Sequence to fold (613 residues):
Amino acid sequence: MCGIVAYIGPKDASPFLLEGLQRLEYRGYDSAGVAVIAPATKSVPAKLKVCKVKGRVADLAAALPARFKGGAGIGHTRWATHGVPSDANAHPHTDNEGRIAVVHNGIIENADELRAKLAADGALFRSETDTEVLAHLIAAHRADGGELEDAVRAALKLVVGTYGIAVLDAEQTDRIVVARNGSPIVLGIGEKEMFAASDVSALVRYTRQVVHLEDGELATVRADGFRTFTEDARTVTRQPSTVDWEIGSYDTGGYAHYLLKEIHEQPGAVERTLSGRLDERFSTAHLGGLNLDARELREIRRVKILGCGSAYYAGEMGAQLIEELARIPAHSEPASEFRYRNPVIEADTLYVAVSQSGETYDTLAAVQEIKRKGGRVLGVVNTVGSAIARECDGGIYLHAGPEISVASTKAFTSTVVAFALLALHFGRIHDLSPADGRRIVAALKALPEQIRDMLGQEREIEKLAAEYAQSQGMMFIGRVRGYPVAREGAQKLKEISYVHAEAYPASELKHGPLALISPELPTVALVPDDELLDKNLTALGEIKARSGRVLAIAHRPIEARLADHCVVVPKSEPELDPLLLNIPLQLLAYHAAVALDRDVDKPRNLAKSVTVE
Ligand code: AGP
Fold:
């Protein structure tokens, strides 16, 4: 949520700031702003210049004055938490004199209290944001002279909450101070220039050498290097690491949208999730990051999976895989609910946190609560080194590659694959036979090619999407393994096309939602060729008898009296079928959104990483 960039060096900062913000725009896109320090001349001292607007980075670029130049600068793209999207609430925020400028991700929980004290001491507040408090607080600590980093440290000691910040000071033009607590900050090392950002995607075009700050750490960043230290001024040494994701991973690569590119990247993403993890000799999965041996795994009596949104639905598929393959009771719950209900944490339960970004605040808070109570948590995470990954006792990285579009597709699919590996591993430690293990291993290996086949049907799905997008809403139904697919399908459609979509277990139709069925409310029905096929066909008959339109997602053509349209999906093993049944629903949502001319990669009101409660 929100993106931060910073530059210091011999060049003009603005081009990097704008380009970096464009790359981070997926994290938040309701307003944007930059600040630079215009260098001193013989007659005029160095001066802070700020430009910020409600709207997108393109609006900011259009509003930027031609003479907006300076060799040190910070920028921000925002997803509003405190105050509406407006020019005034956009970052950077400044102190009374316009000398200190701050950009901030996160939430300052005691902002109201600090604001009252600062206002009483003469601070003039011009926005409704919590961030502005930081600018005044740092300015107050700079009032007596001293170093900017000391003022930032002193200010942060008074703050309760989460932050990733970058701070400029027009009177100390040779540095930018950054700090991290719960919101990522990465430094980028250049040739006699330095960068900082909340996400490496803003940096990879300029440098592959990065340093990830840890929570509670700050850094002074100068053109010729950096120094990292703790809030108590203790110097800490951080070694740079090399970003291994390709620069092309951060571009649309010729596709119309990131979302379409990411849908098409799924065969490769699944290959990477599986890479080196299938053990054909013992028909099992090899998962080196679990940090649990077979004996410890045998002691686990239950699995509780936690995630938000699509991560939660992927967890529902994961729970079914674990129950089916390992016969261990497993359940998925929204992390956002779990963390608020004083959960019972059991020693023989394995907790699994699921997150693409590894930053989702509710999921992180759930992990911290479990750990505080002595529970054991594994992470199923895409972003290496992210907060959730670091908090967990072990886990499985997805290696799906960066996911930029707000709607999750390839990370969702890779998460389900990761759960299949976990379930297989668990299963083979328990009672899953070698023959069944072989069956699952073979099916996993076949998935990338089957996904490619499925994607080959895009043109037909595009036509169906254009037709169904005109509906007033859509119902998604599935039974047992199909139900999480229906939930994820409905989520994807509503999220990016804004067409109202509801998911129901097919078995529940006659207990209420059948009342909604009419020609205006079509149903997407998951009809896998499994032991529940007859039951699902009966549900289709009930819908057709009420003049409902049906789009069936099935393993073989469904007769015309039961479905108006049918998309035929390659068949896997029944346990893995949900994963493939979901692929056409991604294409359906994408093309419906395009047909309705939606902002596919940046749907209204949303942001990629939800780092607030
Ligand atoms: C997915 O399409 C959504 N944008 C959203 O539900 C997302 O999955 C959720 O916010 C969790 O994100 P995470 O995986 O980064 O934790």
Notes: The chain has a mean pLDDT of 95. The radius of gyration is 26 Å. The CA atoms of residues 357 and 383 lie 5 Å apart.
